[in-house]
UniProtKB/TrEMBL annotation:
InterPro entries: Acyl_CoA_acyltransferase, GNAT_dom. GO terms for molecular function: acyltransferase activity, transferring groups other than amino-acyl groups. Residues 70-262 form the N-acetyltransferase domain. This is Uncharacterized protein LOC108851690. It comes from Raphanus sativus (Radish). GO terms for cellular component: chloroplast.
Amino acid sequence: MAFLCSSLPSYSSIPIFSKSNTHGFRSSSSCRLRLRPISTSHVLAPSIDRSTIVISETVSEEELWAAACLRVRTFNELNPSSYNIQDHRRYLAEREFEALKERVSGKREGFTRVSCVNATLPLSQLSNSSEDLCSACKFSDGIEDRVVVGSLDLNQCRWLPDEIAGTKPEGISVDFARAYLSNVCVAKELHRNGVGYKLIEKSKVVAKEWGITDMYVHVTVVNEAAKRLYMKCGFVQESAEPAWQARYLNRPQRLLLWLPLPTTS
């Protein structure tokens, strides 16, 4: 799962439902990053009005930036006492932001179309619960200040770099009728509020509008919470990554899950 800020391997812990490499470069060990092996069992979700959650495709660069910041915040564990930590966090966000803009604008080779789908809440719903989330992931929609609390990419393409490729559909329609979810993430403060489920359901709607018939997502074998979420959304396992490939890419072995989408007449 994803999915974010770099081509870090997808450990798909609870905060990371799906993180797939869509950037085309590898992170340097000098970045001193590691993916969060955090469980949500001890994270208390704030009391929010769920009716104020909006799930939509990103339409502004300001919202794309907020999504990039959420991905950095979710997928990387940075030591807060490290020297120049804020500068390093901003560097990661800028790198993710530029890569995200490239994909969404249609300039990334191998991707027919990419949409960044976000879950957002009014700033007023969160201002008393998470100052860090609000300051890092805030944007204005022209009416009010909102915060990106969940995000994913819907990628219309034949395959994702360094990932298992799906097998459906076959033939000449594969470039237009197959899609992958990547960079699926939800802010830890909003776990257990149905945000991940709503993001995936919205991605189904967008995919059907594009003419997608087969949707895929990658998840690590050990990520039971993510697997439960995807299966709740209708995904089933199609294949598993070979163990040698996972070792070669220095990451946990993952599964490829498949979801057939009904076609509209």
